[in-house]
Amino acid sequence: MRNFSHQKKAITRFLVTHTGIRLGLLCIILVSLSLFMVPDMPSLQYHLDVGDVAPRNIKAPRNFIIENSEATETSRQLAAASVRVVYDLDEGLGPKVIANVQAGFHEMRQLLEEPVPLPSGETAPLSMDALRSQKVWTAKPRFENLLGIPVSEGAFRLLEREAFSQNIEDKITEILRAIYENGVVANKTVLLDEQDRGVTLRTLESDKETTETNLRRFYGPDQARTMVRIVGEPLLRGMHYNQINLIVDLSQRLIRPNITLNRSETQKRTREATSTVKPVLYQIKAGEMLLREGERVTPVHKIKLDALASQIRTQDIFRSNAGNVFLSLLILLTAYCLCFRRPLSQSRNPNKNMFLLTTVLLSVLAMAKGFQVLTLPMVSEAASFTSPTPLLIVLPVAGAAMLICLFFTMTQALPFALVMGSLTAIVLKADLALALFFILSGAMGAYWMQDCKERKVFVKAGWKLGLFHIFLALALLLQMENISLSLFFWMLILAFTGGMLSGILTAGLVPLLEIIFDYTTDIKLLELANPEQPLLRRLMLEAPGTYNHAMIVGTLAEAAASEIGAHSLLARVGGYYHDIGKLSKPLYFIENQGGGKNSHDKLAPSMSALILITHVRDGVSMARQHKLGEAITDIIAQHHGRSLIRFFYEKANMLKGEADPVNADDYRYPGPRPQTREAAIVMMADVVEAASRTLENPTSARIQGLVQKMINSIFSDSQLDECDITLKDLHRIARSFNKILTGIYHHRIEYAESAAPGGTKKKNVHTDRQLPESDAPQGKGSDPKSDAHLKRLGMS
Fold first, then answer.
1. Separation of CA 722 from chain center
2. Residue 772 and residue 774: Cα distance in Å, rounded?
3. For the region Disordered, what residue ranges are annotated (predicted)?
4. Spatial separation of the C-alpha atoms in residues 202 and 188, rounded to whole Å
5. All structural domains of the chain
6. Which tens digits make up the pLDDT trace of 253-288?
7. In the beta sheet, which residues pair with residue 202?
């Protein structure tokens, strides 16, 4: 089981981090680009249908070949018609049937000649005949099996009476031999359809082939049965009519076709004959007039134009597409090395991020290519559109850069917009102006999607992008010639529509991509921060102490993250959910206990530590079950790191004694240690908030000393070794904690109460003060020797 777990982890690590996966994604992009470019449409100047009026003179720019498809098809039909139908002749069928007849009669005669032993006490000759007859009738199935046909009782009785005579056998075999030598065809009507050109008769035993033109000589099944009487008439003359009927009946039923149609061989020879026919071609010379201006396109013109467009594509497409694919490769490699390699290497899941980038990029390219194929007929039919550019600006290409900005940062969105715009222009065979349109549109779309925390931002970004598209469209219009009023308005409308579509498309795809790729955007974090979320509501009702603790931790984490430039919203929501695992056993945690009773008093230290450790695993399980996202799940798993549950560890040591020390690893949280700054902040906020509840007199100085001690303890316990947090960051975090905790535990006015017996006055006792959390992580330096400050954190 452990080996399987290790193998699973190794496979997961390979899929998540191995560079070979990224190389495979690059190959997928290049192959997809090649496929998008191969089905390139012919040039618009040759794209005319039958009945269209030529807008200008069209001459052949080069020599090219045209296939006369009608003449080629006629030649193929003639070649197919010249192939004779193949029939198979089974020469061995007749001799086989005759041999079976001879064997059957011979066995029955032998059976009659064999002596029959008399039963004891029986001497009458009549009994011997009866026994011989019984013996013959017992062999009737064997006789029928040899002949291959059933024999009626009357016919068999007649054969028995005639003692299966050699004469009857000879008559049957002579008739069968005459019929089979002539040939019996399964379907003579189909055979006679080939009377004019004959058929190929192929002998199965020798594969010898002959051409038969006299097809009427062969018998059909009905004709063969009729010929039995005709052939047998001179042979059977003088015989008793019962014998004649017996011989004719058996002979008719023993006849089977020995000539059959071989359809598969005929079709094979027809295909071979048509495949050898070469196309009928003729040449068009360079400069030859194909179509004159104002002339209506005829089917002949259409053939020439299609052939010209096809041959131009055949000759030029490989070279041009190879150059475009190579240029795309250089663009992708440059963008990866300069803009994406370092951020991906710092990510915990670089291959997933690259897979998202690849998916979005290929989706945009596929959408753009499909739209171009659909709009080309519109371009050729609409008089106002002389090029596809006015229609292509409606594509919501900028939506892809907006998505990348939402899931990553502006740093990745800008180079992605550059790559996406360039590759889209290459796939569409567009000019530089349209490529710049897509690049600038994507960049500005990403810019307006920064810090998106509300759904209405999509709409705002959409109409802003639409207005920006209008200015870009005006720039494109100024570069065109012969601008019509309809073209002017159409381009402005399509440009604005493209911007709005980008915002709408982004809004629709964000939730889908969040689910598929398990990403957590700011919008999702804000939704998770809602107190009406199921887990937070359960926490408030079932574990109010933990809920209050989580709210303060979230506040501390958000302020600290803002101080050091981390993701403050993620830190706050991570603080809200970091202890949801306590919902499994809320009464085993000090903040939820009341009446001075502690559920751990009756438990062994190891069991108490196990309960505290379990709340991390339970929290991760709940987070995955409720789909909180990978970022929140990681914070829940890492908010205790590998810290030691010191209280129960020391209690266990005290119970066992120094002679048998307790293994400290059994009292540590499973980890991992915090991998991100946000997880580290939540860890420190959790420890500081729990410890601050133990202060007897929470003055500013005491709070500052406590914060410094707790952070130093975490730092000295190596819990922050795996995240990129600095001492300067720790100083700012401590200062932020000091400020908030001082505000929470500010000095309150003490109200004098009635004098107590003895003349003393009682002070107001706060009932909200709790005992220290037993699961609060304490550093290694809890002894006096390790209390030396690493740094006076939080001092202004």
1. 35
2. 6
3. 755-796
4. 17
5. 4-37+347-506 (no CATH), 91-184+219-257 (no CATH), 524-786 (1.10.3210)
6. 888 898 888 888 888 888 888 888 887 777 777 777
7. 88, 209
